[in-house]
Write a structure and sequence with these properties.
Blueprint: H1 2-24, E1 52-63, E2 75-85, E3 90-101, E4 104-105, E5 112-113, E6 116-129, E7 136-141, E8 144-145, E9 151-152, E10 154-164, E11 169-179, E12 198-208, E13 213-223, E14 232-233, E15 236-245, E16 248-256, E17 266-276
Antiparallel strand pairs: 1-2, 1-17, 2-3, 3-6, 4-5, 6-7, 6-8, 7-10, 8-9, 10-11, 11-12, 12-13, 13-14, 13-15, 15-16, 16-17
Length: 277
């Protein structure tokens, strides 16, 4: 029930964002590398032609558990990325995620794990922006699992940015479907994955804290592609993005990776950097 409610709430918010974009969206400005805005909320959903952006995120998810009924381990993630503006309308990117599972001891059942390093995912992406009246486009991602078994998914979303309150606020959204496909082998538990389409998306509201700093909140939804698991995960994060100089941004977010399925016992912290060439 909570998963269904999460999907409905997100659908209403995404529909509202789309309606606002159609009525009062930010004009689809075209920037060059030299005129790229210092204020993050003013930036378009694609990079200027010829710009390269290098990124690196370090993320930790810290479980409250380790009591006699909960032996969850902490999870750490490293995610370097690179994006390139092929044109003002098209940006392509590549992100590599490596997960590090902290080990734990289970005092009740006697089980334990050692620290594990999993180069889990390589994700090419492409965002196409309609060079019209509004900052709207289509985004596609191709997450590829790289460990014991090889899996390719396809995510296709509508993406956009909307101006609010005389450009003091900006709403960014992505909403679409993930097409799950097991291309080789089985998952770690020996089951073939559920290939039904699953909802994916994100919703971000940010305000101009200064000429170079944006503060905001971010949520979204995605589904676990495992058989019999129809839970929709809904994160809730508070973030700050600061432009240090024309080439460099620093990013911090903190909150809960899932608030829909008793996931509020786990906290998440991300530190990131973006450098443009």
């Amino acid at each position: 029930m909570r998963s269904l409610l999460a999907v409905l709430v997100f659908a209403v918010l995404a529909a509202s964002a789309g309606k606002a974009a159609a009525q009062s969206g930010i004009p689809s400005e075209t920037y060059s590398s030299d005129s790229w805005p210092a204020q993050p909320i003013e930036r378009t959903i694609t990079l200027p032609a010829g710009m390269i952006e290098l990124g690196a995120d370090a993320r930790g998810s810290f479980a409250k558990g380790n009591d006699e009924f909960n032996s969850q381990s902490d999870l750490y993630e490293l995610a370097p990325s690179v994006s390139y503006g092929v044109s003002d309308a098209l940006t392509i990117g590549l992100t590599q995620r490596t997960l590090i599972y902290d080990g734990y001891d289970d005092s009740v059942f006697g089980g334990s794990t050692e620290q594990q390093v999993d180069p889990q995912q390589l994700t090419p992406s492409a965002t196409f922006r309609f060079l019209g009246d509004y900052d709207l486009g289509i985004k596609a991602r191709l997450p590829m699992r790289l460990s014991d078994y090889f899996v390719v998914d396809l995510e296709v979303m509508v993406a956009g940015r909307v101006a609010l309150a005389d450009r003091r606020l900006a709403l960014r959204f992505e909403a679409g479907l993930a097409l799950r496909a097991l291309t080789s082998g089985e998952d770690d538990s020996g089951y073939s994955r559920d290939t039904k389409p699953a909802p994916v998306g994100s919703l971000e509201l940010a305000f101009r804290a200064s000429d170079t700093v944006a503060l905001g909140v971010r949520t979204g939804l995605y589904s676990e592609p495992l058989p019999g698991d129809d839970d929709v995960l809904v994160p809730f994060l508070v973030f700050v993005t600061a432009n240090i100089n024309p080439q460099l941004d620093l990013l911090v977010d903190a909150g809960f990776p899932d608030v829909a399925n008793d996931g509020a016992d786990t906290k998440q912290l991300t530190l990131g950097v973006r450098y443009r060439l």
